[in-house]
Design brief:
five-stranded antiparallel beta sheet; Beta-galactosidase, Chain A, domain 5
Length: about 290
C-alpha cells in the first residue's frame, strides 16, 4: 500500500455551497454548478424599516444568474466588500440583475385569503446543514405572520443538488391548509404556462439582453391549481402554484434557467426540462433488496 500525503490528496470542490453572509447585511446565499440564489435576513429588514441604506424587506427568493460551473458566491461578495467590482455587472461569470423587491421572486410563498395574498417578512433564524460536492441544504425560520386573521407559523429546509436548476423547498407550516408558491412576473411581458398534469407553473420572459425561465414544480399530491395575479402595485404581480398542506408539511421545487448560461435556448426546451423533472419527482427510483 502506498501512503498518500495530505498535500497529494485531491480536493473535493464544494460545488453545492451555502452560507450566511454577514458582510452583506445578512443575506443567506446558496448555489451549485448551474444556478445561485439568496434570501434576506432580519438586519436587512430592520435597516429597511428605519429607512437606512442596504435595507431590504422581502421574503422573496432572489436569483443570481451564473454561467460558469465553479462556485461564485464568495468571489462575488468579495468584490462587493473590497470595492473591486460589482456583482450587478457581468464580467464573464454572470451577474445579479434579477429584481425581487417584495415579489415572490423564484419560489417565495404566500397565503391567499379572500382574493388577497399575504406573506411573511424576512427570515429570522438560519442554520447551515450541509455543503459539499453533491448537495447543500440549510434551515430558515420566520416570525409568525398574519394572513388576514390567520396566524401562520413557517419554517423550511431548502436544498440544492449538483446539476439541478431547481431548489427543493420542504416547508413546515401551521395556520393554513394551502399555500401559494410564486414567480414574479416583473413587467408581465413574458409567457406564463401551466401543466396541471405534470404539476408545474412556468414563466418564460425577456430579461435584459437575454431571456430566462422560472418555475414551480411539485409532487401531484400537493398541486391544486394555479393563479396569475396581476395588479398595478409594484412587484405584486406573481404567477402562483396553489399547493396543499398535508399534516403541516408541503414540498415543492423552484428555480430558473438563463438563456445566456447555454442550458436552454428557448421556452420549449425549458418546458421539456420541467416535464422530465416532474416525471422524476413523481416517480422516484425505488431500490428493494431481497
Amino acid at each position: 500500500m502506498v501512503a498518500i500525503s495530505e498535500h497529494q490528496k485531491p480536493e473535493s470542490l464544494q460545488y453545492c455551497y451555502s452560507r450566511f453572509v454577514p458582510e452583506r447585511t445578512d443575506d443567506y446565499a446558496w448555489e451549485n454548478n448551474k444556478v445561485a440564489f439568496r434570501v434576506y435576513g432580519p438586519t436587512a429588514q430592520n435597516l429597511f424599516e428605519k429607512g437606512k441604506p442596504n435595507g431590504t424587506l422581502s421574503s422573496g427568493i432572489d436569483a443570481w444568474l451564473k454561467k460558469v460551473e465553479y462556485p461564485i458566491i464568495n468571489k462575488w461578495y468579495k468584490k462587493y466588500t473590497e470595492g473591486t467590482g460589482s456583482y450587478h455587472e457581468d464580467t464573464g461569470e454572470g451577474l445579479d440583475n434579477f429584481h425581487v423587491g417584495v415579489s415572490r421572486g423564484v419560489g417565495g410563498i404566500a397565503v391567499k385569503n379572500e382574493n388577497l395574498y399575504y406573506f411573511s417578512k424576512n427570515y429570522t433564524e438560519w442554520k447551515t446543514i450541509t455543503v459539499g460536492p453533491i448537495r447543500t441544504s440549510f434551515y430558515l425560520k420566520y416570525d409568525d405572520w398574519d394572513a388576514n386573521g390567520n396566524i401562520i407559523q413557517e419554517s423550511k429546509i431548502i436544498s440544492l443538488d449538483y446539476g439541478q436548476n431547481l431548489s427543493r423547498f420542504e416547508l413546515t407550516i401551521k395556520g393554513t391548509k394551502t399555500i401559494s408558491a410564486g414567480l414574479t412576473l416583473h413587467e408581465n411581458d413574458g409567457k406564463t404556462s401551466v401543466n396541471k398534469e405534470n404539476s408545474w407553473v412556468s414563466y418564460w420572459q425577456p430579461h435584459a439582453d437575454s431571456e430566462m425561465g422560472t418555475a414551480i414544480v411539485s409532487e401531484k399530491k400537493y398541486f391544486i391549481d394555479s393563479d396569475k395575479h396581476i395588479t398595478d402595485k409594484r412587484d405584486l404581480s406573481n404567477s402562483y402554484a396553489n399547493l396543499n398542506v398535508i399534516d403541516n408539511k408541503v414540498t415543492y421545487f423552484a428555480g430558473f434557467g438563463w438563456k445566456k448560461s447555454g442550458q436552454f435556448k428557448n421556452n420549449l426546451e425549458w418546458e421539456d426540462h420541467l416535464n422530465i423533472y416532474s416525471l422524476k419527482i413523481n416517480n422516484p427510483l425505488v431500490i428493494s433488496i431481497k
